[in-house]
Write a structure and sequence with these properties.
This protein is an alpha+beta fold. The chain is 31% helix and 16% strand. The chain has 2 domains: 270 residues, Beta-lactamase (3-Layer(aba) Sandwich), CATH 3.40.710; 109 residues, no CATH class. It is built from 12 helices and 15 strands. It has a 7-stranded antiparallel sheet, sandwiched between helices. It has a 3-stranded mixed sheet with strand order 5-4-6. Helix 2 packs across helix 5. The relative contact order is 0.17. InterPro entries: Beta-lactam-related, Beta-lactam/transpept-like, Diverse_Enzym_Activities.
């Protein structure tokens, strides 16, 4: 079997059979980065000078929903300071949500949305754990139709209507949490994060305001796209604008793998820089109701089933069948049972739309990050590469990474 580096070199080798544009792989423990390797180039456009420049840990990427972890931490910092409460009605801070409504359908003749009053109020905990029905418009056909009717964007925090509530619906709750932070601190979300996360950790290449940081723009990788036929090439869109008008807590950050690793390391270190140790435990504590847990597991199992049925990956990745005993905390997805490859119960994980993925395994004392810029999301080839990477971490292929003994 190929090593992970042979696997990635073959997958990113330029030519008609190239599988992945490029990726940055990082492993860390509480003391720092223990493994870092980059593969591929910054662009698949042969006319771009970036096509000859390799990806590096300092390459700028739109990290999309990897933003959510920082927004969750910022929210918990506000909870520690008494500025926010996880379980109070958010309408005292977000009056837009004093009387939440649920989208139940559309009128046959006019196409006008049919709304009804929600029975329950919204809380910050519900926003952080996706239990509000505030799904992403681009992922929910009925919400996309509503957004088109109301002339509002399908992402961000402009929409003030929920879909008919299932118990767990991935969406824009973190964007609204970011709005809560702004209103109780009288600062932009970016300013609050800079003061309380980025500067304390030395994260100097992370921003919501890309146009104000030419140094960060100068290191940005191009976005790539996989076609329906499976080939890869330059993407006609970056998907997310460079000049977003708001600091979107659900997915608006630009950063680089080296910066994001600093965040993961600090969480493993748990020395009070970001949160009190007890609050860090709260960040990892499963929060879903039984219905929410069932809904999440159904959602995630469907995604993994699709991947398992694909032809992507190697025999090593096929062995990494995850346990579907998953829950969700205010910080991210939580594994409630260990995975066969070695990932321990209690590990937190999530990712970002252009096929970025991260894991924090506090029991083993390891965190790892896979960074890329490839559309569309949920790419099976990228998922296979990530799982091959994870296999290498837990099975000792990468040498002594400072993992705690089981």
């Amino acid at each position: 079997m190929d090593t992970i580096e042979e696997y990635m070199q073959r997958a990113t080798a330029s030519g008609s059979d190239q599988k992945i544009p490029g990726a940055v792989l990082i492993v860390a423990n509480k003391d720092g980065i223990t493994y870092s390797k980059s593969f591929g180039s910054m662009s698949l456009d042969p006319a771009s000078e970036l096509s000859t420049k390799p990806l590096t840990p300092d390459t700028t990427m739109w990290i999309a929903s990897c933003t959510k972890l920082m927004t969750a931490i910022a929210s918990m910092q506000c909870v520690e300071r008494g500025l926010l409460n996880l379980d109070e009605d958010v309408s005292s801070i977000l009056p837009e949500w004093k009387n939440p409504q649920i989208l139940v359908g559309f009128e046959d003749d006019s196409g006008k949305p049919i709304l009804k009053d929600a029975k329950n109020k919204l809380t910050l905990r519900m926003l952080l754990t996706h239990q509000t029905g505030l799904g992403y418009g681009f992922a929910q056909p009925e919400l996309m139709r509503y957004c088109k009717y109301a002339n509002i964007p399908p992402i961000g925090e402009k929409r003030i209507v929920c879909i008919r509530r299932s118990a767990w619906t991935y969406g824009v709750g973190l964007d609204w949490a970011g709005q809560m932070i702004e209103r109780v601190t009288n600062k932009t979300l970016g300013s609050f994060m800079e003061e309380n996360i980025w500067k304390p950790l030395g994260m100097e290449a992370t921003t919501f305001r890309l146009q104000e940081r030419p140094d960060i723009i100068s290191r940005r990788a191009d976005m790539s796209m996989r076609s329906a036929e499976g080939t890869i090439g330059p993407s006609p869109t970056r998907f997310f604008p460079d000049n977003a008008s708001d600091d979107q807590g659900g997915g608006g950050l630009f950063s680089c793998p080296a910066d994001y690793a600093k965040l993961l390391i600090s969480i493993l270190k748990n020395d009070g820089t970001l949160l009190k140790p007890s609050t860090m435990d709260d960040l990892f504590a499963p929060c879903l109701t039984p219905d929410g847990t069932a809904s999440l597991r159904e959602n995630r199992a469907a995604g993994y089933k699709s991947f398992r049925e694909s032809k992507a990956g190697s025999e090593a990745t096929k062995q990494l069948i995850p346990q579907y005993e998953m829950n969700y905390s205010v910080g991210g997805q939580i594994s409630e049972k260990g995975w066969l490859n070695g990932r321990k119960s209690g590990s937190m994980s999530w990712g970002g739309l252009p096929n970025l993925m991260w894991v924090i395994d506090r029991e083993t004392g390891v965190a790892f990050f896979y960074g890329s810029q490839l559309l569309p999301p949920g790419d099976s080839v990228s998922r296979a590469a990530f799982e091959r990477f994870e296999y290498a971490i837990y099975n000792g292929e990468l040498g002594d990474l400072g993992l705690k003994a089981s």
